[in-house]
Each structure stands twice: as C-alpha cells, then as structure tokens.
Predict the 3D structure of the following.
Amino acid sequence: MQGLSTQKKLSLYATAIVPVYSQRNLNAVPSTVAYRVYQYLTDLLDADTKSRDSYLRYMSEAETYNFVTSEKRGRGYGSGVHKEYTFVDDPGVVAETLRADIRIEEADDEGELIKSVVNAQIDDFFGGK
C-alpha cells in the first residue's frame, strides 16, 4: 500500500471500513455505499473529494494490486447496476494498515460518528430492509 496516493488510500479505506463498521453481515461492499463513506471521510479530513468516476478508477487500480475483487450487480428492474467489492484479505487488517497513514489517523477520533454514517448509508442503500 506504500506508494499509493492519499486519494487512493482514502478510497480503499472508505471501502474497507464499510464491512468493519456494518451492523449487517456484508459479503460484498456496494460501491454506492463506499463512495458516500469516502465523501464523508474526505469532508471530515478536509481533503479534496474526487468524482465517483475517480473513486471507481482508484478502486479498479486497487483490484489490479489484488486488494479487492469486484463484480457488477443489478438491483432489479429500474434500479440500475452497481459494482460490489470483496476484499482479498480481511478488510479490518486493510483498514488498520491504512489507518497508519497520518491523514487517516485524524479520523480516529470520529469512530462512532463514522460508524453511524456507514450504517445509515447501508440502510439507505438496502431500503431499510
């Protein structure tokens, strides 16, 4: 993970903390949820928020480094398609490793708030089911 830009680390970290903080048992992380968590984190850390396309590009790069695998998934008629990410290694270990990045450590104080944001986004994505 050394050598990755801060934006790529933030993208990967935001995606990794979704299953770590989720109250649901997630087999894969919907990109929609992860991107919203990424937006929240960049705002919290006062970092530039990149576009959804940039986030998806960063995660594609993470896939080439074998941090994650992805799959496109439909949500039924009229609901569109999204990518889902599955971590090759334990997402908790990935998040912990990335937390060592000085910029991301600043978010540690907001752990409970981040956890509530993650779960609100998951509930929103799954329609409160």
Summary: The chain has one domain: 6-125.
